[in-house]
Write a structure and sequence with these properties.
alpha+beta, five-stranded antiparallel beta sheet, 27% helix
Length: 499
């Protein structure tokens, strides 16, 4: 009898190992990137023959010695609706597949913040009926290695699903969907309260002298940590805790805190969210990416300045892992907010501005969309729209106003700073006189300045600064600043000095 049970168990295990499986991203209601050679991959028994069929094309491959397989589909036309059939020793059929544009949406809490948490949720819910606008929320956590499989499912835009959609991602996707009249898929991977270094691969960070420093302690811990030792230690801790708990119960006292297992040190190290929440998605064909993060790097001035090295590294790192060239990526410049703990708020904004030097990147200037008392401002509709304007102009080639004024190098002459800008058509002050400019002389003391618009220039003077050598605009976490262009889009904060 025991032999029969063992044989049956081995039979089931063999069958399970033989099953072709796919990442969760390849599932019902998925959106495949249109007009591109799309990779499809999964797992099977080593050496197993696998075929992938879709829209009249069939691709065949043999699983390698690790049981991994991958094919590339011929490009599909946007809007095409189809099914995918994957056959090995078993058959998987993926229903309701659309070809469209897929966008990766990542960051911290302002990207994770759901539509259901907005005060306007009920109003938004009434119009949430867009079956060709779909979202996949990556639900895995941080990981010590990058071999995690994605977790989640594709959801259609319906009143029932909307509450759990990322608000920033949804309003961005909705703007594209309405303007382009084509399917849009959103891959959302975001975690509140996380710094940018958690989202960059450990391998890339180790190449940078400063970014590599936090790995030193982890490397020391990994010399002695093993899953087996952690399990033994936890068993001993539980045994000791149980004795104390029994004694506390007998004496009618509160129970002591129960110990927790010792985690893999790498799960708390920089790059843990890349391992757990970006690497599982890497390679899934996308049109581009949007990023809303930076708050957690603004606790110190130095951290805010260092962001100017971290953000370009993230862009480079993700592009390398996706292996589809310099795909477009844009971020949200931090909006107005005031909290004395966030000393580097202005520096993070400046770092974001500097990173526009990286090709095929963009920035939604959101200086006017924040809440001085709430780090999670409510107007995610406009944040998404501004990201959408960038995409429509720079990715889809539409001739529209898409960005707020961006500063060029100012000139100093005749007791004034002459500030010029890109995207400066129709410069004006929103409500009253221009506010937000400051001037300083050689003493490095800044004074409020008078600013006047001259075409696409702003002439800045101050009676207290006869010979200015530096100019700043909106250089506060929650500034009074109102310079906009003809499209009503605000100018980016900036400074000419590096003091």
């Amino acid at each position: 009898m025991k032999r029969s049970i063992l044989a049956l168990t081995l039979c089931f295990l063999t069958a399970a190992q033989a099953d072709v499986t796919l990442p969760a991203t390849f599932s019902d209601h998925m959106i495949l990137q249109a007009d591109a050679a799309v990779p499809v991959w999964g797992w099977a028994s080593p050496g197993e023959d696998v075929t992938v069929s879709i829209a009249g094309q069939t691709k065949s491959v043999k699983a390698d010695d690790k049981g991994e397989w991958r094919v590339k589909l011929d490009p599909l036309k946007s809007g095409e609706s189809t099914t995918i059939t994957v056959k090995g020793k078993n058959t998987i059929t993926i229903q309701d597949v659309l070809a469209g544009d897929v966008w990766l949406c990542s960051g911290q809490s302002n990207m994770a913040w759901t539509v259901g948490r907005l005060r306007s949720f009920k109003d938004e819910q009434t119009t949430a009926n867009a079956p060709q606008l779909r979202m996949f929320v990556e639900s895995s956590g941080g990981a010590g290695e990058s071999n995690v499989k994605p977790r989640g499912e594709w959801k259609l835009t319906t009143p029932e699903n909307l509450a759990n959609f990322s608000a920033t991602a949804y309003f961005f996707g909705r703007h594209l969907h309405r303007e382009l009249k084509q399917p849009v898929g959103l891959l959302v991977s975001a975690v509140g309260g996380t710094p940018i270094q958690n989202w960059i691969s450990p391998k890339s960070q180790r190449t940078h002298p400063e970014m590599a420093k936090p790995f030193t302690a982890m490397d020391v811990s990994m010399k002695t940590w093993t899953p087996e030792r952690a399990k033994e230690l936890y068993a001993r801790q539980l045994e000791g805790w149980q004795k104390l708990a029994d004694k506390a119960k007998a004496e009618n006292k509160p129970l002591p805190p129960k110990p927790a297992p010792s985690p893999d040190p790498r799960t708390r190290a920089p790059g843990n969210l890349f391992n757990g929440k970006i690497a599982p998605l890497a390679g899934y064909a996308i049109k581009g990416a949007i990023w809303y993060q930076g708050e957690s790097n603004a606790f110190t001035v130095e951290g805010g300045k260092f962001y100017a090295e971290q953000l370009p590294m993230l862009v480079k790192d993700w592009r390398e892992h996706w292996a589809q060239g310099d795909f477009p990526l844009a971020w949200v410049q931090l909006p107005n907010f005031h909290n004395e703990r966030f000393l580097g708020w202005c520096e993070v904004r400046e770092s974001m501005l500097k990173t526009l030097a990286v090709p095929h990147t963009g920035m939604a200037i959101c200086l006017d969309l924040g809440d001085p008392k709430d780090i999670h401002p409510q107007n995610k509709q406009e944040v998404g729209r501004r990201l959408g304007l960038w995409a429509l102009a720079k990715v889809y080639g539409q001739n529209i106003a898409w960005n707020g004024p961006l500063p060029k190098t100012p000139q100093f002459a005749n007791g004034a700073a002459v500030c010029t800008f890109e995207h400066a058509e129709g410069l004006e002050a929103r409500a009253g006189q221009i506010e937000g400019f400051e001037l300083a002389g050689a003493d490095k003391t800044f004074h409020p300045a008078i600013a006047k618009i001259d075409g696409e220039k702003v002439i800045v003077t101050s009676p207290e600064v006869k010979t200015p050598v530096a100019v700043r605009y909106a250089w506060k976490d929650d500034p009074k600043a109102n310079l906009v262009n003809v499209a009503g889009l605000p100018a980016s904060p900036f400074r000419s000095d590096a003091w």
